[in-house]
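Inputs:
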Amino acid sequence: MQSSSSPAAATALSEPLRRPRVVGWGRLPAWLRFTLLLAALVGLWQAYVSLKDVNPLLFASPRAVAEAFVDGWRDGTIPRATWTTVKVLALGIGIGALVAAVLTVFATLTKIGDDLLVLLTSILNPLPGVAVLPLALLWFGLNTNALLFVIANATIWPIAINVTTGFRTVNPTIVAVGRNIGLSSRRLVTDVLAPAALPHTISGLKAAWAFGWRTIIAAELVFGVSGADGGLGFYINNAKLYLRIPQVFAGLVTIAILGVLFETVFGVLERRTVVRWGMKTVPATSGGGEG
Amino acid sequence: MASTLDNVSRTREQPANGSRSTGEPLLSVEHVRLGYWTPAGFNLAVGDVSFEVQRRERIIVIGPSGCGKSTLLKAIAGFISPAGGEISVAGRTAPPPGPDRAVVFQEFDQLFAWRTVLDNVAYPLRVNRRRRADATASARQFLELTGLGHAADRYPHQLSGGMKQRVAIARALALEPAILLMDEPFGSLDALTRARLQGELNAILDRTHTTLLFVTHSIDEALVLGDRVVVLGNAPSTVQELVDVRDVGAPDSAAYADMRRRLRRLLANKGEEVDENAVFV
């Protein structure tokens, strides 16, 4: 606009902008980089099986695994097992979240509730979820309730810890603003505290999901089957029992794919909320880096 | 740069003296004492402070750090109750927090991060029973007033510090408070932005006729914005002096310089030793 009036600025402004130069691998888009890496790993795997003449009863080739995977989805065994696992997991996390919510409210409102939560979480959170499985089987018998108990126990504590931390660390200024604009106590919780604590709540749910997911697969491996419904852990164990090694691998692949899928869902949820609002910075690499 | 400073000067209209003296004060602070509990005991910050604010008046509370000026503002806003004395607003004694005393804080994080700029201003109006369309229209109007019409759809984290404070001011003004409370709202801004916002605040208050209670530790800010300045001493603080600064003129005037010197002496620890009358007759 001012190019005629200030020639010095005009020359600088009209020059093309220099771009930082990225060379080689880093220049490729993320999806391509990861696809290429995955293809290379599968290639190595196939090469190992083809060249080394491994015992097919111990190790399956990618090809055999792919066939078992497709067959499993065609005849419905993998979808059924997946559905069983996901259903129990969702219900377990639901129960866990509900109990966690009650504990959190109690801990936020009273000092004794706060102390109780601190005590319970410090005892029960470090306990691996499956460790209580023998007791659960004793109490509930060989049924879904035992699994639900184990999952709920594995998810209550990470959710409760994170949500109480979230509520406790809300910036006092924003709470003051809430009171200043005339919010009732109830709306202060729903309209200010809850959204302000959302980053912690999502972290809690992520941790709960990760704990619950590992716990249910492990529990199903030990637990076996209730009635005709066996989950993914059972599917793997069962395939091993009949020495259907490609099926064992296909079960593992399914678990991995579901894991990536859930991470993606949480990633999208975070990007739409806390990242969009600047309450959490985006991790440098694309794709979830959950430990 | 000189022109920027000139813009900050007191170009606003002066309220007629007669209009202030009639009726009861909008805000009255009577022998208020404020402090906080420490393991060692009660720590008194505000020892005994009294003053009154009339409608449309702009009062600046100034004092050394630790004198309890921010605590005093929080007490007027209703967030803390005094350990002694009485605060009444429009005849109500010790009112709970409410939008009739809208507060603008110093921290940039006073905006709702999960709401857009527009919604940060409109939401408090909806909380106060305004219809959605009405609240949105009003919010737009106040954002225009603070020069942020173009940023209505952004989220707070996409704004600069100065813009965030503008949104907070728009939000507070949109609530049409009886008295606007500001707690060092420009304290975290760079000097140029601060000067610009001071000028804009003056212009906006000229239009809205909002009563203002403004806490600062900057003498220049007090002179540029205030009608009267309440000078607090060290903790436990009392009112050192209530100074009328309505007629000090532009920052380059002699009267301004004199007043600046006087306030500076009052704020210095040796304030009592200086003979004010030697400077001001």
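Residues 64-275 of chain A form a domain with the MetI-like fold fold (CATH 1.10.3720.10). Flag for discussion at group meeting.
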